Amino acid sequence: MNSSYKCNLKVLSPVHVGSGEKYTASEYVKSKAKTKKGNVLNIIKRMDVSNYFLSLDDDKKEEFLRDLSNPNFNLKDFDSKIPNTYMKYRAINKSKKEISPTQEISEAIKTLNELYIPGTSIKGAIKSAILYYEIDDDLIQDISNNVLRNNGRVDNRSYTNFMNRIFSSRKAPTPAQGDIMKFLQVSDSSTIKSPTIYDVATVMASFRLGHNEFYTRNKHSREPTLSFLECIARGNNLSFEIKNNYDYDIFKRLGLDGKKHLIDMDNIKKAIYVFSRALINFEKEFAEDYNIDYLYKFYSNLEKQNSLDNPVLKLGAGSGFLSTTIGLKIKKYDENLFDKIKNGTRGKTYDYSFPKSRKITQVGGLPLGWVQFSFEEV
Length: 378
Description:
Oligomer: single chain
Strand content: 15-25%
Radius of gyration: 24 Å
């Protein structure tokens, strides 16, 4: 039966879905802004450099192009009074460390210069949860016997066949035509105007008590290696829609009747809840084992927020191996098989938990990408 849902997505920790583009100080100017409550914010004004360039006279254009060849070029040094008419959008800068002119900021995906979360990202995260929830002991054996090579690496053709057995019908002319997930439509989310920029480091597992370490490329200063990301900040609410396009005749013809439960909303909600509960428990154990107090506190609070009616889910950058694969389910059923996979994935051995690193914001110590859903049938 067809069903449609209006959904709310509450951002519980910064979400970054990248556009693939990066920019430096040649495209922005730093500034300050006041909130309605009078608080002062550090902001970055992202400028439309192409239009600005076209507005310059010939001498200034030459000077601009000459200065632009300098890797330390800073747009504000070139023109401290560049008009706001050339501003594409403003971003709130919450990075703990000063962003140097040469450091790149990873842009979030946008439409008309406003941030959103693509429906494909939401649907992909939901599919991972459904897959986790669907896999049982027999399917784990199937993976062990048919999907994994002796070296622990995945045989891609066998994995595709495995996924088709779960999500597609053999009666359909092609696996794509018989894919049950194509009957689940997930819209892009609503938008927000301003990204928030965080500096994100990689915290590494360490056995030295109280000395969990950040990944660094500088062995002398030990300064964490940082990524600067445009994110949708915690506390934002976005809306999107989910539609289940069930059709009795089409499902009968394609042989999909036995799979229709996969895209039933009650099944989806339970799958998300159970998948995230397992992931949260794993992350709490990781934080406890390596004495990362702020992570343990975050996941303890998240555990209380996760419910069948309002499940939480991880999406976007920083989701990691366990959020995007069935590794966690394999670990639950067969530790030896999980060890075989991690040896095949990481390519070298170590005694730490796998995966051994997590992406964390420098301000607030937050893992990336956690959101909470609510659903209303319409």
